[in-house]
Amino acid sequence: MSNLLQEIEAQISGVKTSVNKQNVGIVRECADGVAKIEGLTDAMLNEMLDFGNGVTGLALNLEETEVGAIILGDYLSIHEGQEVKTTGKLLSVPVGKGLLGRVVNMLGQPIDGKGPIKEDAFYPVEKIAPGIIRRKSVSQPVQTGIMAIDAMIPIGRGQRELIIGDRGTGKTTIGVDTMINQARNNKVGRASGDKTFRPIYNIYVAIGQKQSNVARVIAELEKADAMGDTIVVAASASDSAANQYMAPFSGAAMGEWFMDNGMDALIIYDDLSKQAVAYRQVSLVLKRPSGREAYPGDVFYLHSRLLERSARVSEKYGNGSLTALPIVETQAGDVSAYIPTNVISITDGQIFLETDLFYQGVRPAVSVGLSVSRVGSAAQIKAMKQVAGRLKGDLAQFRELAAFAQFGSDLDAKTQGILERGKRVVEVFKQPQFDPIAVEIQVAVLWTVQNNYFDDVDVEKIKDFQAKLTEFLTTRKADLLTKIRTEKAINDALAAELKAAVGEFKQTYR
Amino acid sequence: MKTTKQARRDAKQLFHTCKVSGLLDETRVRNVVGAVIAQKPRGYVGILTHFQRLVKLDLDRRAARVESAVPVSEALQQSVKANLGLRYGPGLAVTFAVNPALIGGLRVKVGSDVFDGSVKARLSELEASF
Q1: Which residue of A31, A89, A321, B17 pairs with A157 in a disulfide if CB–CB is 3.0 to 4.6 A?
Q2: What is the DSSP code string of B17-45?
């Protein structure tokens, strides 16, 4: 017994009480979510600061005599003279599959009331994008389920495609449709038991939006049973500017985890113009010099470093990808404003939505002339290339002629033909919201258009014809659609089968 | 009153002239303030305000505050002073204070560095770990 006591005594004497060195500062002023802190001589750039009571900050400005920090969390509880400690850590968020189906804030904390999140790891919010060696060119498609986009402005995994347009032109809808289509494809792929199938996970980052809008998007995703494959990061209009400015970076960190672990993810930033405004506010309060439209000088770097993190990684490094669909809102269709031009130049193409088209009833209101995809055509499946190859040129020609044809009535047969075809293609591309179309149906319908089966249908009846054709193919010729999906190309045999099927349908259609 | 950039630059230059081998010299500081007030250069109030701020930050940086739960013996005070001198160099203004809330141990604050070896800090650390 005495041995035991001696042992404990010896162990106690062996324990050294170490004193940790801490670096502290004093809050000198605090306003608009930004604190100026005196002291903190050891603070590093972008380091997390501990304000106590669970409030954290981020050191953004290291000046000669003070540190400027943004406060993440409730800044009303911070008062002058309060002590602030450095933590030596970078701001990190939880990442992993446990976040799927959840709604989180900028710090990765759940805000949907469904209990705690089981994370796989923590990722720093600011991370350097994958370098040249790790990257691979875009070669696999992301099917948005929107026929006009998949046919003419195809998007590949790892691409950054900007969605740009005025307010109320359906920018968010394109994003939501794409997410719903990914969830549907994932379901079909998982059910098929195909070992090579790669699901795409969605991340939706809502920045500076009304809470009601975010709730509506979540409700739509739930209705379409797409929440299971989706993470929603929400920094709504009532959150502080600091939270709004950091939210896309946390979303990107969550997406990077999928990419690093050999999976594919799709991230939608809705929208980056509001994020730029939030960043402008933070910068002005931090007294950083302002430039054009009062944005700080590094607003380009803000967006470029964010979007550079979307990449397709080569097989050697896991073969994952992160596709980004940033959204930017324009004022009165002005794409030459500061933020739109910046983001257009950063991304690999843009989908431009026009108000005029929207009110003409062309929905999605994709402007064919101004929209482009710089890398996506390499990712299109062969069948789609076969049926949609010339579509964009034809439509552009149609628009030109349509403007011209308004003045005269005497048109030669060729021009007449282009106009009639164009009107039908425009009709075919109209699509209701939240109802993405599977790629095999898109291919079949476009094949039917290209092979002149729509030409003798009245323009008013095109949508009806298309709907009935789709119904006929899905109910009666499901095996044909499966063949298109699996073979991904239209060979002679498949073309003959399609011809027979469409011929059969035309006989019954009235 | 807003301090102009020029005033800040002047104040900084004056502040540097007050340094003797890296340490702030009190008599020079007094002389500088007296001379500026006598000559009244353009924006001298701004210069002096910023100068005061620089001096205050320098004093804060060189101020060491040692808190303990019970009064510290003279020998311990000397050894703490000597150790701090070794770590932070000469010119430290060390003050000692009694703070019963610490329960036991020492809490040393030098500039913005804090070495907290008090019982209270350890208890709160323990509390946070639960």
Answers
A1: A321
A2: HTEETTEE-HHHHHHHHHHHHHH--TTHH
